[in-house]
From TrEMBL:
GO terms of biological process kind: hydrogen sulfide biosynthetic process; sulfate assimilation
Protein name in the entry: Adenylyl-sulfate kinase
Pathway the protein contributes to: Sulfur metabolism; hydrogen sulfide biosynthesis; sulfite from sulfate: step 2/3
Transmembrane feature ranges: none
Amino acid sequence: MVKATNITWHNAAVTKSDRHLQNGHGSCVLWFTGLSGSGKSTIANAVSAELYRMGINEYVLDGDNIRHGLNRDLGFSEADRTENIRRIGEVAKLFVDSGTIVTTAFISPFRTDRDQVRALFEKGEFIEVFVDCPLEECERRDPKQLYQKARRGEIRDFTGIDSPYEAPDQPEIIIRSDLLTVEKAVKEILGYLRDKNVI
Ligand SMILES: Nc1ncnc2c1ncn2[C@@H]1O[C@H](COP(=O)(O)OS(=O)(=O)O)[C@@H](OP(=O)(O)O)[C@H]1O
Ligand SMILES: Nc1ncnc2c1ncn2[C@@H]1O[C@H](COP(=O)(O)OP(=O)(O)O)[C@@H](O)[C@H]1O
């Protein structure tokens, strides 16, 4: 790793607290994690749409989209996934600093990677949302036909097939997306944000 030298941290004139006061709500990251097809993207977007409707500053960072731009140099090896999550963690931190409720939809299969992102944040700002869905159901949904390809051996290192997924030990929120509708999941997540006085 290259260390930053001859670089000075500048304190901002407008702080995160200033922004919270002006916005009338707090900021945090809702970090969705789960298998491909578990529903991360669908639920993260539905949460964001509801927050938008309420006049809250929100933004979605989505796996496929980030991999088209910021992280287009990264593949799916263990090291690349770790770097993918590290960068997204840093981007999410900027969004939280800007006063935004940012939702992220990445498989983020490794516990240590997610914990390292958590460590970037102040207490309560990192909300891990485990979208828990059995592999069989994800494979039945197969919205992008990627499981089919992985089973045929056309995609290597596919999460859940020939690459591991480490479920969170103590996520703030668990959504059983095989049992809960998208609407119910949104309600539960917004309820959590209200309980914690983020909104
Ligand atoms: N080998 C392999 N394993 C898993 N997923 C794969 C792979 N190759 C391509 N894809 C597609 O890329 C999306 C996952 O990207 P992420 O950035 O979320 O992955 S990771 O967090 O770095 O593990 C994932 O999107 P989602 O289905 O939305 O999860 C897939 O569409
Ligand atoms: N309860 C549910 N929650 C989320 N997605 C669901 C649910 N039931 C069915 N689905 C479907 O499952 C698929 C999940 O895909 P997606 O959101 O892209 O997952 P991921 O981002 O985890 O890969 C979508 O086609 C969605 O419509």
